[in-house]
Amino acid sequence: MGAARLRAELIRPGGLWRDLVVVAETGSTHDDLLAAAKRGAGEGTILVAEAQSAGRGRMGRSWVSPPRAALTFSVLLRPAAVPMARRGWVPLLAGVAVTTALRAEGGVAAWLKWPNDVIVNGAKLAGILAEQAGDAIVVGAGINVSAARDELPAAQATSMALAGAALTDRDQLLVLVLGQLERWYLAWAQALGDPEVCDLRQQYQRLCGTIGSRVRAQLPGGTALTGIAREIDGAGRLVVESAAGLVPVSAGDIVHLR
Fold first, then answer.
1. Hey, what long-range contacts does 30-33 have (CB within 8 A, 24 or more apart)?
2. Same domain assignment for residues 230 and 126
3. Distance separating alpha carbons of residues 168 and 166, to the nearest angstrom
4. CB count in 10 Å sphere of residue 250
């Protein structure tokens, strides 16, 4: 990937992005930036890897991809003015950014599976992970770009190439995704994290294919909840209408049922 050209396109006065590094390989861009955050690295740092040997997804899952077949990157954010209670919106915000970019410029009918998996034709195209380190939040994304069917880690995964995307250039995709992430993050931060004021909650629900679906939520502790996903509430939780009534789900693995 062209680091110099990417810096020229992404880093500008008054913008969110301040530094960009591209490495040939690392264990995990996410872990690297978490460590950098603890050392005091500034907001707007971007780390991109051509290959990861120990990439991580939600709930401890691994993210495996052949070298240069995926777009794998992490960014460091420090939303100092946003109350802690509203920072749970960051991974959902990142999901909106990725999905919007892929729909608008990638030419794929992407949608969000709560909280932040990006799905195309029923298969997972991208995953997002956000973790906090002190007052910093590191957001990582992995987007399958050129992987062939036999190179994907699971039968329910897909890639931009397999989905017939109009755009499979990783440099262009990175610029588009980070442009959307900058737009949504700055609006959200300016609104002090209020997802209604910056239209984030409304946009998330427009892009979320989980809303209106019958789902089973595998909850922490081994319990499960089945019902109809009705909305995303102001805290970013999935509200499921079950036999017990409306139940907000803040964490769990969601399965869409037929």
1. 30/55, 30/56, 30/74, 30/129, 30/131, 30/138, 30/140, 31/56, 32/74, 33/74, 33/75, 33/76, 33/138, 33/140
2. no
3. 7
4. 13
CATH of the domain at 243: 2.30.30.100
Report CA-CA distances (Å) from 159 to 61, 69, 99, 102, 215: 18, 9, 14, 12, 25
Could you tell me the pTM of the whole model?
0.93
Residues in the chain: 258
**Among candidate residues 139, 140, 138, 157, the one with its CA nearest the CA of residue 148:** 157
Convert the pLDDT of each residue in 114-132 to its tens digit. Answer: 999 999 999 999 999 999 9
Domain count, the chain: 2
**Quick check: 48 and 154 in contact, CB under 8 A?**
no
| 154 shares its domain with 81 | yes
Predicted pLDDT of residue 208:
97
Tokens of 226: 């089945």
Helix (H) or strand (E) run with residue 8 in it: helix 3-10
From the list 223, 144, 127, 139, the residue with the least C-alpha distance to 181 is 139
Tokens of 239: 């509200």
Question: Do residues 247 and 233 make contact, with C-beta atoms less than 8 angstroms apart?
Answer: no
**Could you tell me which of 199, 193, 61 has the C-alpha nearest to residue 140?**
61
Q: Does residue 161 share a domain with residue 84?
A: yes
